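> example.struct
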């Protein structure tokens, strides 16, 4: 008995079954089947060719496509990447293609190897792939980045995870986004603390200018705020912006106190000789900052990690650019 032709063995049989599967998917899924079938070559290349996976990762970075970029990271890194802030996610994409703005990726080849060019606002970044070195489940791809008359070389490492090639390292650095997130968090905390110190010194300068101009210190910081159109006055001196005049410095809250002068009988002399202190505490401890700060009228800065409590003149002295 002859078998029906669609059960034929060998190459012809496999081709027949493949055609039947295509027809079946078309009938079952309709237009969606064409998208599924069109993805098959790309998925196959992603699974088998580390250079193709790197190409897709870099083009996603060029477009600032955060979702597509995350799909090329290992499981732990992908989860950590999605948990980053928007600014941090974009910062990592910028580093991958050495451009600040979202760009248009252009693909070509040179000597049989991939060239990824990212163009953004008239600025181009070009990444020329070298020969892929595959070692079992690891792959290393040298990438040349021309910069004027010089060329920078970067070696990308990929690892096969779940049957797909995922980004492992850039140069000598392993991609460890959980650790990177902690470093960024610490760096941002330190930046907010520096901004708070700078704000305190700006307020101190405004207080001294007010005292010199009006013969006394203001009762509250809001008197240092923007002046109306008819000019500065003791109530609106125009020495600080609206936020600082309200005691808001980024993620820090400022507290201002007058230190009365001693040993002066004349009221005017006491007013001119009065000092002040400024204390700064993080609004949300651990998120906006860890250290609290205390600045006196002589410019001496003190502070410590007070778990959100107010710093005092008993805290350790801090050396900074404005220390006297």
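> example.seq
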């Amino acid at each position: 008995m002859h078998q029906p032709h669609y059960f034929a063995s060998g190459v012809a049989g496999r081709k027949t079954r493949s055609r039947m599967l295509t027809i079946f998917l078309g009938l079952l899924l309709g237009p969606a089947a064409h998208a599924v079938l069109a993805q098959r070559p790309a998925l196959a290349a992603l699974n088998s060719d580390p250079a193709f996976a790197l190409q897709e990762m870099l083009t996603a970075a060029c477009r600032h496509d955060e979702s597509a970029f995350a799909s090329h990271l290992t499981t732990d890194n992908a989860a950590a990447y999605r948990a980053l802030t928007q600014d941090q996610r974009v910062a990592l994409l910028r580093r991958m293609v050495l451009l600040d703005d979202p760009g248009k990726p252009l693909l070509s080849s040179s000597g049989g190897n991939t060239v990824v060019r990212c163009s953004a606002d008239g600025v181009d970044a070009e990444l020329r792939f070298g020969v892929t070195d595959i070692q079992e489940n690891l792959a290393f791809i040298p990438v040349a980045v021309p910069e004027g008359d010089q060329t920078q070389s970067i070696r990308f490492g990929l690892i096969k995870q779940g049957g797909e090639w995922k980004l492992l390292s850039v140069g000598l650095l392993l991609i460890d986004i959980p650790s990177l997130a902690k470093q960024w968090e610490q760096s941002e905390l330190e930046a907010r603390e520096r901004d708070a110190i700078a704000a305190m010194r700006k307020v101190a300068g405004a207080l001294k200018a007010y005292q010199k101009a009006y013969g006394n210190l203001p009762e509250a910081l809001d008197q240092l705020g923007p002046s109306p159109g008819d000019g500065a006055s003791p109530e609106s001196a125009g020495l600080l912006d609206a936020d600082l005049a309200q005691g808001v410095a980024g993620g820090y809250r400022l507290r201002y106190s007058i230190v009365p002068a001693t040993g002066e009988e004349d009221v005017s002399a006491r007013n001119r000789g009065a000092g002040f202190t400024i204390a700064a505490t993080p609004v949300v401890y651990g998120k906006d900052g860890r250290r609290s700060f205390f600045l006196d009228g002589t410019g001496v800065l003190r502070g410590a990690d007070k778990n959100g409590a107010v710093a005092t003149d008993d805290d350790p002295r801090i050396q900074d650019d404005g220390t006297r």
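> remarks
Residues 1-40 have pLDDT under 50 and may be disordered.
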